[in-house]
Amino acid sequence: QVPILEKLDCELAGKVQVYSIDIDAQQALAGQFKVLSVPTLILYYKGQVAKRWSGVTRLDALKQAVEACA
Asked: 37: which residues sit within 8 A by CB, 6+ positions away?
């Protein structure tokens, strides 16, 4: 998933910010965001969850979701 997220970050620079957490080191944060499987992706728009994925997600699906929020 990391290469896909890096590509998304490059292609949509200025439109999206990509963050990752180590859920082993940040268990409380993982619990706060209800991360039950890896990878889990959460798209926020205006402070609210716009979309959530569990498992590897294709670049085109991520871009489509981000662009739908813009």
From this structure: 54, 55
Say how far residue 34 (Cα) sits from the centre of its chain.
Answer: 13
- What is the model's pTM? 0.88
Q: What does the pLDDT look like over 2-31, one tens digit per residue?
A: 999 999 999 999 889 999 999 999 999 999
Measured CA to CA in angstroms, residue 17 lies from 8, 24, 26, 36 at distances of 9, 22, 20, 22
Count CA atoms closer than 13 A to 32's CA, side-chain side: 6
